[in-house]
Amino acid sequence: MAEQALSDVRVLDLTSHIAGPYCTKLLADYGADVIKVERPGTGDVARCLGPFPNDEPHPEKSGLFIHLNTNKRSITLNIETATGKKILKELVKNTDILVETFAPGYLPGLGLGYNDLSQINPKLVMASITPFGQTGPYKNYKATDLVMYGMGPLLYSTGLPEREPVKMGGTVTTSVGGNVAAPFILGAYLGARLQGKGQYLDISLQEIQCAQTERASSQIAGFAYSGAITPRQPGGLKVLGIPNDIYPCKDGYVLFMTMPLWWPRVAQMLDRPDLITDPRFADFATRLANEDQFNAILYPWLMEHTKAEIVEKASKAKEAAMGVNTPEDVFKNIQFAARDYWADVEHPVAGIIKQTGAVFKMQRGGFKVRRPAPLLGQHNIEVYCEELGYSREELVSLRELGVI
User: Which segments within 2-150 are labelled E, that is strand?
Assistant: First the structure.
């Protein structure tokens, strides 16, 4: 029996930046042998992106690259050379899945498109992840995460109604794109195993964003059905009641969500039973009208209590509340610790790094850290000599010729 769920799967990773590497990382974390093919000399562009320890850039210390490429092997290969094309085709012979993020038409122009490679390996599953897909008027456009976010429906409804839209933090579109692409690809791989024939997947990050369940698909469906455009909401969700927003407290911030009938719970949480009969807060309308007066009671109470204390009091009163966690809070969270979520990975250059672990638990064959993110070209000898049969002398020549 295979040690992990995907231990018998071999993947060629011709991706860079975030979406593609995150997709192949998910496969590698569950056992797939992912060979990352990088450009000689420079490698994946993510090697140049932070965070870096002490803000000192180093191609082997990028926190982003290390996170996205743990459990993979790295080889260097210039696929624009005749020998590089020949070597890639040799690798494809024993590959189950190939994932790439080049511009549309680039690989076919080199004679390395799916039609070319499937002649070598009919069971090959090949996936291209690009901003807008392989067809259509936008196919050759480049895009940042901000552009992709704005191209979908989410940005328009994020932020204050009286101000311009504001993007959510982080690399939302590219990260979600990689996350969604992985199961798509595994579905195609399963079909190839059952039917004996591979196929090509054209994956558009724009289309993934519109389909994702995190508000996007509901906004699209809402407009299609009724013509309604989801507005930016003032002050959180106070249309449901108060408190209903993010508020400061003694050691950070806390989030409340209150439904109109929950006012007695709010009074219990604050240990102010008199608020239940206070005429200023007699009903939903008067509470909203007198929010400033309520805040004069709420804010001093908040500043006297920590996040943990507030959540405990809210829980006892059955009021919905949570502390807004900092990254430090997340690392110290007792729930993550109880489920053994974090993985300490020792990197030969960057040292010991705490990384996210299993995104889901399996009874057997689940997540495992087998190796740290690779150094650039670290596995050239292992792959070229031990697996493809090239000699050390030939590798020296290939390096001098700029092939690897």
Answer: 10-14, 33-38, 72-76, 97-100, 125-130
Length of the chain: 404
The predicted-structure confidence for 334-380, as pLDDT tens digits, reads as follows 999 999 999 999 999 999 998 999 888 898 999 999 999 999 999 99
- Three-class HEC string of 279-316: HHHCCHHHHHHCHHHHHHHHHHHHHCCCHHHHHHHHHH
**Edge-to-edge strand order for the sheet containing 252-257?**
246-249, 252-257, 320-323
Q: Which fold has domain 10-215+338-400?
A: Rossmann fold (3.40.50)
pLDDT tens, position by position, 15-24: 999 999 999 9
- pLDDT band of residue 268 (cuts 50, 70, 90) is very high
Alpha-carbon distance of 114 to 122, in angstroms, equals 10
Cα(332)–Cα(330) distance, integer angstroms: 5
**Reported CATH class of domain 238-324:** alpha beta
The token pair at 211 is: 């389909």
Q: Which two tokens stand for residue 164?
A: 């311009």
* Pairing mode, strands 246-249 and 200-204: unpaired
**Per-domain residue ranges of the chain:** 10-215+338-400, 238-324
- Rounded CA separation 288/72 (Å): 55
H or E element: which one contains 336? helix 334-338
Q: What is the spatial distance between Cα 54 and Cα 185, in angstroms, rounded to a whole number?
A: 38
Residue 162 has a pLDDT of 83
What tokens appear for 287 in the block?
Answer: 């509470």
